[in-house]
Design a protein that fits this description.
Number of domains: 2
Radius of gyration: 18 Å
Largest sheet: none
CATH class of the largest domain: Mainly Alpha
Distance between the termini: 31 Å
Mean pLDDT: 94
Low-confidence stretches: none
Strand content: under 5%
Helix content: 55-70%
CATH topology of the largest domain: Tetracycline Repressor, domain 2
CATH architecture of the largest domain: Orthogonal Bundle
């Protein structure tokens, strides 16, 4: 899979950016350093002015790639969901057993992230922490309906659809496949967040990770 991913370009809705950051060295540095900075200081404290200082470029040069930092967050989170989607498709494509296929998909979307050397300018571990801590800020806005119509969340929705289809393959009579699929994705982020910040509110910890919890949850529901 690593060899395949080296030739993959994660396709992001071109309405999210002004200029494709993958098209230049400066764009890639913007992505690389923004991940490092948002992970370190949080999205609220992050600014294009600080990013410009970090990359040794004018703040105005960043605006040639992204209209604002909200669009940058949409780009980063979309890239993460696209990266997970490619892993899911490549890994589960050859699995014939529907139950095992769903289990593998759940493992992929709920596991603790490890760095992927296929994308040298993106630290997937730090990006995962950004998604866990900041993803809700990309859609809990007044503009969410407009942005949804523009297709800003299409990769995330496609990932939910793939999981939902696998759930139906395991149990065609289950009435809530979309709800369960979206619960797995959103719930995984929440359980990782609780594990790191509110450990008394979750049973997930060093020896019981969110993957084990969601495998148990889904197997119990669908049996």
């Amino acid at each position: 899979m690593e060899h395949l991913l080296r030739s993959v370009k994660i396709e992001i809705n071109d309405k999210i950016y002004v200029k494709d950051p993958e098209s230049s060295d400066l764009g890639k540095r913007i992505i690389e350093k923004s991940i490092l900075m948002i992970s370190e200081m949080g999205f609220e404290s992050f600014t294009f002015k600080k990013l410009g200082t970090k990359i040794g470029s004018n703040e105005s040069s960043i605006y040639r790639y992204f209209e604002n930092k909200h669009k940058l967050l949409l780009y980063l989170t979309s890239w993460y969901w696209g990266w997970l989607e490619y892993q899911l498709v490549f890994t589960t494509n050859s699995i014939a057993d529907t139950k095992r296929k769903l289990e593998k998909a759940i493992e992929i979307v709920t596991k603790t992230t490890v760095e992927d050397s296929s994308f040298s300018h993106i630290n997937e571990v730090l990006l995962s922490s950004i998604v866990i801590n900041e993803y809700s800020k990309s859609y809990l806005t007044k503009e969410v309906d407009v942005e949804n119509k523009e297709g800003y969340f299409v990769i995330y929705k496609r990932l939910v659809t793939r999981l939902s289809a696998m759930i139906r393959e395991v149990n065609a009579d289950y009435k809530y496949p979309n709800s369960l699929a979206s619960t797995i994705l959103e719930g995984s982020l929440h359980q990782h967040f609780l594990k790191d910040h509110f450990s008394s509110l979750t049973d997930c910890h060093k020896d019981v990770d969110p993957t084990r919890y969601f495998l148990h949850l889904v197997s119990t529901i669908l049996k």
